[in-house]
Amino acid sequence: MVTLNVVEPSHLLQDFEVKIHHTSLVCPSQRTDQRNKSMFFLSNIDQVLNFDVQTVHFFPAHNDFPPQIVAEKLRETLGEILVHYDFLAGRLRLNPKTGRLEIDRNDSGVGFVVASSELTLDEIGDLVYPNPAFAQLVTVTLDTLEPDDQPLCILQVTSFKCGGFAMGISTNHATFDGLGFKIFLQNVASLAADKPLIVTPCNDRQLLAARSPPRVTFPHSELLKLNIGQADTKSSVFEATQEDLDIKVFRLTSGTISRLKEKAKPFGDVDNVNSNKRSITSFNVVTALIWQCKALSSSTESNMDRESTILYAVDLRQRLNPPLPMSYSGNAVLSAYATASCKELEDGPFSRTVEMLSEGAKRMTDEYAKSVIDWGELYKGLPYGEVLVSSWWRLGFAEVEYPWGKPRYSCPVVYHRKDIILLLPDIDNEEEGGGGVNVLVALPPKEMDKFQTLFHKVLA
Hints:
Blueprint: E1 5-7, E2 19-26, E3 39-41, H1 44-47, E4 52-59, H2 67-81, E5 91-94, E6 101-104, E7 110-116, E8 153-159, E9 165-172, H3 178-192, E10 223-225, E11 246-252, H4 254-263, H5 270-277, H6 282-297, E12 307-315, E13 333-341, H7 342-347, H8 350-362, H9 366-378, E14 381-383, E15 387-391, E16 409-412, E17 420-425, E18 437-443, H10 445-459
Helix pairs in contact: 2-3, 6-8, 6-10
């Protein structure tokens, strides 16, 4: 019997005051060749990710690096790193002739904010529990600039009374995917330590340009065409809801994940067993559990034939032919999907749900990925499904070694979206084996109650 561990913070400040002391723009420290400052091409994957992503990285006090020294060092480092990521200092523009988003590489700079709180890190609550109040640790827009002149990146350093601090970063998703952002952070950390770049970024987004002419060679039920000016009953998972949502964190230890893997092993012929072994990964079993619970939490006896589609990101870097450089800085992820009826998810063996998920990733071949990119050249659209699992679990932001040490914890700022479920790294607990995951779920109260019951039932 597995006891469900729902993380309930001992205390959670719903609000706390953050005082802004200084706001400025940081431009590249060296003038680059202005003749090469053409508009920066964004791929069709980048095009649909025009929204901000906010992350907060918490650091304990360090005797040699008090917050004011860290702020000065980060400001200097930003100027240096923008020489290598010059697109980040530009501004997003819509090309009226093509209707495409581009970046004007005009070296206008990124935002830099210095702030403070009268609280200690311990007083703001459990860092593992996502707190909407953490939004105050990130600056999304600069009030001194016009809407069309907003930076693509803003970094805020907030000092706490204990000597610890938070590094809050807002970036437009069109600039980085998770791996690209991780490499950016590693490079920031390395330059801050007066060392060379860890990895020279590959900023060539033309590597993911559509073919000419575009060739859509697969049906793409996971993509939703946007009919501009027409009402559409379907909505994207990226849309925020106006409903009241309960937010809960379900903690899965490494031991629980191992038991899920055992549950995912199929019975039957040897070929099936061997095939399924390859799909029994930690990500697949956790995501299969989430899919079952999310689909059935909004189902009734009368609509069990309803189909549920789950979306999850797949990295393309090693799936393309030729492969993309691992240092590719842009968005090199596409949404894989799996579809099943609610009845299948309720009655079928857990091993089959895991296998359906793995088939979604297997589908993401070189040709399939290029077909998706070409689809984006022909249509305006977004990924479409009932639920999107966004995994921050293995990105390793908290493993980045800065001169002042590794973060105590790194997390995204909570979004008010019931159809996006986040997988967040747990702070390793040696007694539980480490390597666990926190599953962040936001649902209307009745659906949350059912989700929690189902979650417990599958783990039992």
